[in-house]
Hints:
- The chain is an alpha/beta fold.
- It has a single domain (24-237), classed as P-loop containing nucleotide triphosphate hydrolases (Rossmann fold, 3-Layer(aba) Sandwich), CATH 3.40.50.
- The chain is built from 10 helices and 5 strands; from the N terminus they run αβαβααβααβαααβα.
- It has helices spanning 19-43, 60-68, 86-89, 95-98, 120-123, 129-148, 162-174, 184-190, 193-206, 220-237; strands at 47-54, 76-80, 107-111, 151-159, 212-216.
- Strands 2-3-1-4-5 form a 5-stranded parallel sheet, with helices on both faces.
- Helix 1 packs parallel to helix 10 and helix 2 (60-68) packs across helix 10 (220-237).
- The longest helix has 25 residues, at 19-43.
Amino acid sequence: MPQSSFLKISTKAPKNYNKEKIKAKTDKIIEDLDELQNLLYAESKHSILVVFQGMDASGKDGAIRNVFGKLNPQGVAVKSFKAPTAEELSHDFLWRVHKHTPAKGMIQIFNRSHYEDILITRVHKWCDDKTAKKRMRAINDFEELLQLNNTHILKFYLHISKEEQHERLTERLSIPRKQWKYNEQDFEEAKLWKEYMDVYEDCFRNCNKVPWIITPSDQNWYKEFIIASNLYNLLKSLQMKYPGLKK
């Protein structure tokens, strides 16, 4: 595969960005998102699927908590995709994903997603390249099907540096409130950094009908600003209206 072009994108905020000012902007955006989510739920014409992908310790959990945590939990659902069960393996790879796509009025968050079936599976040679290409075509068709049903998709790749990942994984050993996240296997996966970067680049190249948002994530405050801003812009673009009294 060619050199991963997304690696040329900085994992940090622009140097002229002020942390406190950006955090204040993010807080205001999240306040506005509360009303926009209420509109989405009340109008019930659209649904939102938010996909988070990224290396271990890229901050997926924190992004979900800090950006979506103040929204009405009645209208937000989170699904984490881990190793498939025996039942899931007995179906096509998208079977377990499709049943968690959002209903009208809902925001559904995928913490990892259907993309795991062309990422970790390729790195560990559980899925060969020929099968991966077929799966990429299926993913594109799947996302198109969702869009035809008024599901709007935001796909975030949380882009951290190798050095930042190592620091965060190491913190899990020493900080009590983070120790529950510690998994010895994470350090083994980190050794496969180059292999992961290669398969991510192939994913971005072939599954981009819904564009990926490469989100610099070394600094959580900037990552959360990018996520909140993109969700806000999407919801505003829908020009939603509250339904009137039922007759």
